[in-house]
Amino acid sequence: MPFEIFVQLAISGLTTGAIYSLIALGFITIYRASNILNLAQGEFVMLGALCAVFFIEKLGFSYFPAAVTSIFLVSMAGLFLQRAVIHPIRDEPVLILIMVTIGLSIFMSGSAGILFGPSPRSLPPFIDAPSFEIFNSVRINTQSFFVIGATLLLVIILYMVSRYTFIGKAMEAVSTDRLGSDLTGIPGNFIVMLSFGISAGIGAIAGIFITPLFFTQYNSGAILGLKGFSAAVIGGWGKYSGAVLGGLILGVVESVSVGFIPAGYKDAIAFIVLLLILYFKPKGILGSRALEESRK
Amino acid sequence: MRIFKNSIIIIICLFFLAFGLSCKSSGPEGYTPYKIGVNLELTGPYANITKTLVMAMEMEVERINEMGGINGHPLELVIEDNGFDLAKVSANMLKFTRDKNILAVVGPFEDNFQATTRDIAEKEQITNIVVCPSNPRVRDLNQKYAFNIAHSDILVSEKLVDLCLARGYKKILVFPGNWPLAMSLAQNFKRLAAGKRIQAIISEETHKPSDIDMTPQLIKMKPVIESENIDAFYASTGGPPGPIICKNMRTLGIKTPILGTHAFGFGFIIGIGGDAVEGVEFPTGKPVVPYQLDENDPIRKTIIDFHERMLVKYKQGAEQISGHGYDIIWLIHDAIKRSKKPVTRSDFRDAFESTKDFKGCTGIYNFSPSDHDGLTKKDMVFVRIQDRKFNRIKLPEFE
Q1: What's B192's domain CATH number?
Q2: A122 has a chain B CB within 8 A of its CB
Q3: Same domain, yes or no: B65 and B101
């Protein structure tokens, strides 16, 4: 494979990988506070994008207010769904909670279909600049920079919040030892609810950033959620840095694999890589403290 | 006391029995409805398309019934959602075949599901009206009870070859989707183009309907486009992948003209594709450009009338799928009118097959024992996306 094609494939993969990373970050945020795997995470991505499209097209908002309102509303939806659906059954085994999130995902995609209509929608790019060329013939879409930038910025913010703020430490404490955190006065229920809100907000941000590149439809959450989950597992379940690394690896491997085999096998390659990584590094590339502790 | 209680129960039962019988025989025999089963994917990936189809069919049934029905009989749709599930598709089809009041069944939409219902239709001898069939193996069976309401993949390919001839394209690179309709469109195009000395190269790279980014495939195809001096790039696809391919191509700096299938003729394609779909040309159904049709076009009036009624009722104009809905209902209406009375399933099928010069929204239908597609390439127009609108293009000698 010529070098330019390899570089072009890798760069294309980085953009796709950054998208997977953004979605993976949402999974990790909820997990770190509540130990729940929220399989409705992809639906927050879809909801964020469709809300923004609605505000721009139907209510005449300009881009920025539409994006902010959409992120706010989806975060509120996350808080509400946690309070109304997850909170009442919080003492059930985690497996039951995970099953409930599958139900939530179906409910959210169905409701989005009714509210926003079933047609696929897109958003205009953030800035009206065409793609540009680097390394002689390798081209990059301007929007890709926003996606990669948003991913890096979010991971830095999430890392700082978890390491240096009370809220971040409280989230860690609630997931590590619920009884202990309750005894120290940390409002556990509020923290878990907050994690759903933040995670929904991250999902909405992901949706708004990626929709100008692709499209969003009421049922696009499931496939995005699956890829995001795979990314989080590859990198190291429970780690923000792992989510980003896993996403980028998944995206690049998927894209570069097309250089060697027909694109029809792209997904198969991605999942073979997932299996291989889990075979040799069962806790993901960066390891997973969460998984180690759960096995004790 | 017990006798009194029993008498009351018997009287109540007799009352309900008498009421039931009177209801059944309240109207004259002529007012029993003609029932049509509708077996569609109302939920799942085709929900968008089938919803539009049902909306159009319901509007036309309502209209027929307001006009007094068909010879006094109202027309009734019995709608069942098959949930994009083969088991439900078969169950619905069998349920309809067992209800002797159902004259014919419309749907399903998905190609693989159609193979099943068409087979049941043959065995149970009930007309099965399907939209957009594309599986060549099923089509070659020449089934007696299955009829198609749409431009077939062969017609679309014929018309696309005409577009290439008119534009002087000699070498086309085809990027097919990996599902039956997209594959069949690509293969038919290659075959028909070869007959006109146009070389169509079908890429080994394919895409899926769920692909959100086709950049990797296009990166691999870019050197072929440059080294083979490709005149045009044919995106043999449908749904969201169409505009995404255009976006990805333009991002990669590929400026080759893009040709599309008739599935590019939907508003959301322009919504998703934006500037990237500007200049895309494709053959498509006439409802895509209702007001741009020639004044003397035999179906212009039908389309505009339907388009305006759709706008009033649903605030969305006619397009290809709703046009198919119109055609289904009025073809049924026409066949029942011509059928022997009382209308049986067999008489209905025969009448449907003998449809001649029926002016629908998709074209002028002429069914025969050897042709259950009914349309010709004259029923399509060439369209170019320009200024975020569908613009009809007239190509002398080819239209």
Answers
A1: 3.40.50.2300
A2: yes
A3: yes
Residue A57 to residues A66, A218, B136, Cα–Cα distance (Å): 10, 16, 41
Flag whether pLDDT at B140 surpasses 80. no
- In terms of C-beta density within 10 A (0-12 exposed, 13-18 middle, 19 or more buried), how is residue B9 classed? exposed
Q: What is the pLDDT of residues B207-222, one digit of tens each?
A: 988 888 899 899 989 9
Q: Which chain B residue's Cα is nearest to A252?
A: B216
Distance CA B328, CA B363 (A): 12
Task: State residue A60's pLDDT score.
Answer: 92
Looking at the 3D structure of chain B, how many domains does it have?
2
As a whole number of angstroms, the distance between CA B374 and CA B148 comes to 8
Report whether B314 contacts B327 (CB < 8 A).
no
Round to whole Å and give the CA distance between B108 and B117.
8
Domain count, chain A: 1
Reported as a pLDDT band with limits 50, 70 and 90, residue B9 is: low
Residues B108 and B182 in one domain: no
In the predicted model, what is the mean pLDDT of residues B17-24? 43
Note whether B219 and B265 are same-domain residues: yes
The verdict on B65 and B172 lying in the same domain is: no
Q: Do residue B81 and residue B48 come from a single domain?
A: yes
Q: What is the pLDDT of residues A237-287, one digit of tens each?
A: 888 899 999 999 999 998 888 888 888 787 788 788 888 888 888 888 887
Task: Give yes or no: residues B84 and B166 share one domain.
Answer: no
Q: Which residue of B has its CA nearest to A117?
A: B48
Q: Are residues B251 and B385 in the same domain?
A: yes
Mean pLDDT over B258-280 rounds to 93
Length of chain B: 399
ipTM over 0.85: no
Residues of B in contact with A139 (CB under 8 A): 251-253
Domain with A199, as residue range(s), is 3-295
Which domain, by its residues, includes B259? 156-291+380-393
